[in-house]
Design brief:
This is Polysaccharide deacetylase. It is found in: Secreted. Keywords: Signal. GO terms for molecular function: hydrolase activity, acting on carbon-nitrogen (but not peptide) bonds. With 267 residues, the chain is α/β, with parallel strands linked by helices. The chain has one domain: Alpha-Beta Barrel (TIM Barrel). Helices cover 34% and strands 15% of the residues. α1 runs parallel beside α3. The radius of gyration is 17 Å and the shape is globular.
């Protein structure tokens, strides 16, 4: 059977998030249960960079590989998530909204969560020094496939430059805000100098996956360790396909028609 590579997508680990943000904030105890389950199953943790390097080289990916990623760059990653990962020897890839470093989650105003604190530059540097892979997540978290191409290019390219200025090292991976992307945005990501990009797709990645639209499975607040185990082994998630679903393209057109309205309310 072809290998499945689960890439998990978290946003926040917080016991007391704003009410309307609750679905995306996994509690600390639940997160600990997730990580303990990964250890019990003998899962081998990789970063996105490690995974894509193996795939590009044609080298085998560990049979029980798992990749833990976090989007957005909330400050609770440093206080609530990373200590738990570090204690279990699990790596992580953290995608940071570069234009909001040291600020707040402004794009979440429509769901009443615009006040969530973001990591500051010192925290990001310290996390990188401790082994966290830092990736870019745009400057301001827009829907890149529904904004003008000029703005999309700036969001993609400037976030790389901003984070590299903080870290004094290359930033090689990007994650599409909201998971939204199209052929042109993927091309922009490559032209900006990134070697990989993470989408969402809520499916299992694999060695033949698109390295500029890696499939990830979103982990929500109500996801138990038992359910997550079923995601890992393919019972609760399908293998990612190479082609975009028709409904994805249709939804993109709807969003473009709504581009003059406030951005989507999803983290």
């Amino acid at each position: 059977m072809s290998q499945h590579i689960p890439i998990l997508l978290y946003h926040s680990v917080d016991d007391h998030p704003p009410v309307d943000f609750t679905p995306w904030a996994v509690g600390r105890e639940m997160f600990a249960e997730h990580l303990d389950m990964l250890a019990e199953l003998g899962r081998v943790g990789l970063t996105i960079g490690q995974l894509t390097a193996l795939i590009r080289a044609g080298d085998p990916v560990p049979e029980r590989a798992v990749v833990v990623t976090f989007d957005d760059g909330f400050s609770d990653f440093a206080s609530n998530a990373w200590p738990q990962l570090q204690a279990r020897g699990l790596p992580a890839t953290l995608y940071v909204t570069a234009g909001l470093v040291g600020g707040h989650s402004e794009w979440l105003a429509p769901v009443g969560a615009s006040g969530l604190p973001m990591l500051d530059s010192g925290e990001i540097g310290e996390l990188a020094a401790q082994g966290v892979e830092i990736g870019a997540h745009s400057m301001t978290h827009p829907q890149l496939d529904a904004v003008g191409r000029d703005r999309a290019w700036l969001e993609i390219s400037e976030s790389k430059k901003a984070l590299e200025a903080i870290l004094d090292r290359p930033v090689d991976t990007f994650a599409y805000p909201h998971g939204y992307h199209d052929r042109v945005t993927k091309q922009m990501v490559a032209e900006a100098g990134y070697t990989s990009a993470a989408a969402v797709r809520n499916a299992l990645s694999h060695p033949g996956d698109d390295l500029y639209a890696l499939a990830r499975c979103t982990v929500m607040a109500d996801c138990t360790a038992e359910h997550l185990a079923g995601v890992l082994d393919g019972r609760h998630a399908k293998r990612a396909g190479r082609r975009e679903h028709l409904r994805t393209g249709v939804w993109r057109q709807v969003r473009r028609l709504r581009a003059s309205y406030p951005e989507a309310n999803r983290p």
